[in-house]
């Protein structure tokens, strides 16, 4: 029972929650990279955090959560859509062995970009001044939506999982107490339990004294959106002269997808549409 996200709701409190775990999708993301265990942990946590944040997609669209800093981890990003199709990549320079989250990311920020299929793009930014990724995300909700939120994230080099507990916008009188109570119980979940238990079992283990409504499972799958067509679109931004220059030097245009490690190769015959008349003039 891995690679899925499940939302839940407390009947007696104005609180919602989500449980997510990633196994195959996480392995697909890291298999094309040579990440240290420390970096893999951050990428895994970022993956789970991004799936938990897809609840912000109230429409068809995409979400990207990116961290960038001046530490050895220059950049890490996870892309997801409303169907929980995910991909991700990271850029690391230097040794990260034994370093903490703060040491690995350094000073920087976390950027959440929401791109609806129809509508305007939204971007939120928060400083990476906390000691963990989960604290950065809690901070983001505190600042941007004033919604008390607790995020628990765990990852090693092969598995990643997490829980999100969040106040609903309309709250009752005893709300703060309720929220503390629910969070305190969530905090008793062990890393191993998050990796191995089903959402039903985990919720029973944490909240058997509460009435919790669990929604349908949503599968998390790895999917890269790169394609030959998308490569051609990006090649359209350079001039035919430049394209021909590169082909003259290297025999073809080669493009590499950082996310899935797919290689694309274009020869003159593949680029007729882009080269058009310019190319014919050369002959
Ligand atoms: Zn790709």
Automatic annotation (TrEMBL):
Q: Which domain of life is it from?
A: Bacteria
Does the entry annotate any disulfide bonds, and if so which pairs?
A: 224-226, 257-260
Subcellular location as annotated: Cytoplasm
What modifications does the entry list under PTM / processing?
Under oxidizing conditions two disulfide bonds are formed involving the reactive cysteines. Under reducing conditions zinc is bound to the reactive cysteines and the protein is inactive.
Signal sequence annotation: none
Coiled-coil segments, which residues? Answer: none
- Which UniProt keyword terms apply here? Chaperone, Cytoplasm, Disulfide bond, Redox-active center, Zinc
Where is the major localization of this protein? cytoplasm
What NCBIfam families does the record point to? PRK00114.1 (NF001033)
User: Any idea what job this protein has?
Assistant: Redox regulated molecular chaperone. Protects both thermally unfolding and oxidatively damaged proteins from irreversible aggregation. Plays an important role in the bacterial defense system toward oxidative stress.
Q: Which family does it belong to?
A: Belongs to the HSP33 family.
Q: What is this protein called?
A: 33 kDa chaperonin
């Amino acid at each position: 029972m891995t690679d899925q996200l499940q939302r839940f709701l407390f009947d007696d409190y104005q609180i919602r929650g989500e449980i997510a775990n990633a196994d195959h999708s996480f392995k697909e993301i890291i298999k094309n990279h040579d990440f240290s265990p420390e970096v893999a942990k951050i990428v895994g946590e970022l993956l789970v955090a991004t799936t938990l944040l897809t609840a912000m997609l109230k429409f068809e669209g995409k979400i990207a959560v990116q961290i960038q800093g001046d530490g050895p981890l220059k950049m890490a990003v996870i892309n997801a859509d409303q169907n929980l199709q995910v991909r991700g990549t990271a850029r690391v320079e230097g040794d990260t062995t034994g370093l903490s989250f703060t040491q690995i990311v350094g000073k920087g920020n976390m950027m959440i970009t929401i791109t609806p299929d129809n509508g305007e793009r939204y971007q939120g930014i928060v400083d990476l001044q906390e000691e963990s990724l989960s604290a950065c995300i809690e901070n983001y909700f505190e600042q941007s939506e004033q919604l008390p939120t607790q995020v628990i994230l765990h990852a090693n080099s092969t598995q990643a999982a997490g829980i999100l507990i969040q106040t609903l916008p309309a709250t009752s009188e005893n709300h703060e107490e309720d929220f503390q109570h629910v969070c305190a119980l969530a905090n008793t979940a062990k890393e191993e339990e998050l990796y191995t238990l089903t959402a039903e079992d985990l919720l029973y283990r944490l909240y058997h004294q509460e009435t919790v409504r669990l929604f349908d499972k949503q599968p998390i799958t790895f999917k890269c959106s790169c394609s030959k067509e998308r490569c051609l679109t990006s090649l359209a931004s350079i001039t035919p002269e430049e394209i021909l220059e590169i082909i003259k030097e290297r025999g073809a245009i080669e493009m590499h997808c950082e996310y899935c490690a797919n290689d694309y190769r274009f020869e003159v015959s593949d680029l007729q549409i882009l080269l058009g008349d310019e190319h014919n003039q050369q002959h």
